Amino acid sequence: MKSDKRLRIMKAAIDLFKERGYDGTRIIDIAMRAGIGKGTVYEYFSRKEDLMLDVIKDIVLVDYMEFYSEAAMLTEEAGIRKRLDVYLSGSEKMIERYGLYAKMFFNQVVENTDVDSAGAMKVVKEMTDDQWERIRTIISDEAKRRERSGLPPMDEAAVEKATSVTVLLIASYMLNLINDKQAGSGEAIYSKGLAIDREMIVDYIVKGIGF
Fold it and tell me: pLDDT of 70-87, one tens digit each?
């Protein structure tokens, strides 16, 4: 069936993108991995860019929503430490399955690179914005919870600043995990001799934003 072949092509592509990188993967390589002819790939995707976009939309984003679903269901009553811990768990699952794509996302957050006009990068930008909003919600909810407890309020500027700090700390942690998995894929943010685990990074975040 056509849908079966299309799925085989996308699965072969994502495996090769993770193994060799996007630039290092050719259409003929994808065809061989999928066990079909090169011409068959072009029956479904006119360009490699289109194939990558469909991989992100039809496979990566589906897993993305699943991995972060538990974090999305937690309310402010769970507390910031629990919410960040569950959020980081979702991020770690993304890295475990999609190291290449995770690195694309976190590079944009840390390095603030310009987003390419290609459709695939637009989807990655949407994911970046979504991640920012998820983290901002956690920070804002905690600020409101603390204010109800009689602690000093946090204005919008302080929430934005705390969100920026949190995003950068999480991105640094995730990039370090990616680099541990993909030797030589980039420069680690933290020293290789420093063991950073999820509990430690949550503690860094909470202390860093003053909660």
Answer: 999 999 999 999 999 999
Question: Phi and psi dihedrals of 129, rounded to 5?
Answer: -65, -40
**Which two three-digit tokens encode residue 152?**
């000093």
- Other CB atoms closer than 10 Å to residue 181's CB: what's the count? 13
pTM of the model: 0.78
How far apart (Å, rounded) are the C-alpha atoms in residues 86 and 67? 10
In this structure, which CATH number among 3.30.70.120, 2.40.10.120, 3.40.1050.10, 1.10.10.60 belongs to the domain 2-46? Answer: 1.10.10.60
CA distances for 48 relative to 13, 17, 19, 70, 170, angstroms: 9, 11, 16, 33, 31
DSSP string, 143-208: HHHHHHTTPPP--HHHHHHHHHHHHHHHHHHHHHHHHHHSTTSS--SS-TTS---HHHHHHHHHHH
Rg (CA), the chain: 19
Q: Which residues contact 181 (CB under 8 A, 6 or more apart)?
A: 95, 96, 99
Average model confidence (pLDDT) across the chain: 82
Q: What is the pLDDT of residues 154-169, one digit of tens each?
A: 899 999 999 999 998 8
Coil, strand or helix at 127: helix
Dist. CA 80–CA 202, nearest whole Å: 9
